[in-house]
Amino acid sequence: MNIAVVDSSVGRLSVAEEGGKITRLLWDVDPVGEPTPVLVEAQAQLRAYFEGKLTKFDLPTMVGGSDFQRAVCDAMSDIPFGETLTYGEIAKLTGNSAQAVGNACGANPIPIIIPCHRVMGAGGKLVGFSGAGGVETKVQLLRLEGAAGLLI
């Protein structure tokens, strides 16, 4: 596994790559190995995202876990920049309960790139985030995307 680091407005992000695919996004983990082409591209895309120049990541990812976990990650990846869906809406798309979707969102190994911050509770309620800083980081990411109209 190789890990590259990117400084951002939500902290020092560490992106892990295995076999040419992004497998994790963590906070404040030191670099490991060599910067592979995928990691260099991930760094560039993350910088562009935080500079407001990128609205959709185009990186190869690999999410472990069940087919359901991958389906929820796919559904989150389809949420457009600056928009949100609820756990219930994703539950309808995946054929499971909102609680199961919430658990899958919480297990998202690649936050930001797979935008679990765009998933809200019922009625647009602000709940959980799988990355460091929890809801505070989620608020920062939604504000960055201009989705803050729902957040005062």
UniProtKB/TrEMBL annotation:
Q: Which residues form the Methylated-DNA-[protein]-cysteine S-methyltransferase DNA binding domain?
A: 67-147
Q: Does the keyword Transferase apply?
A: yes
Q: What general EC class does the enzyme of this chain belong to? A: transferase
Highest rank taxon of the organism: Bacteria
Catalytic site positions: C116
Assigned GO CC terms:
cytoplasm
Q: In which broad location class does this protein mainly occur, judging by the first location in its UniProt entry?
A: cytoplasm
GO molecular function per UniProt: methylated-DNA-[protein]-cysteine S-methyltransferase activity
Q: Which residues form a coiled coil?
A: none
Residue ranges of domain Methylguanine DNA methyltransferase ribonuclease-like in the record? 4-61
Q: Which keywords appear in this protein's UniProt record, sorted alphabetically? A: Cytoplasm, DNA damage, DNA repair, Methyltransferase, Transferase
Gene3D superfamilies in the cross-refs: Methylated DNA-protein cysteine methyltransferase domain, Winged helix-like DNA-binding domain superfamily/Winged helix DNA-binding domain
Protein family per UniProt: Belongs to the MGMT family.
| Miscellaneous information on this protein | This enzyme catalyzes only one turnover and therefore is not strictly catalytic. According to one definition, an enzyme is a biocatalyst that acts repeatedly and over many reaction cycles.
This one is known as: Methylated-DNA--protein-cysteine methyltransferase
Organism for this UniProt entry? Aliiroseovarius halocynthiae
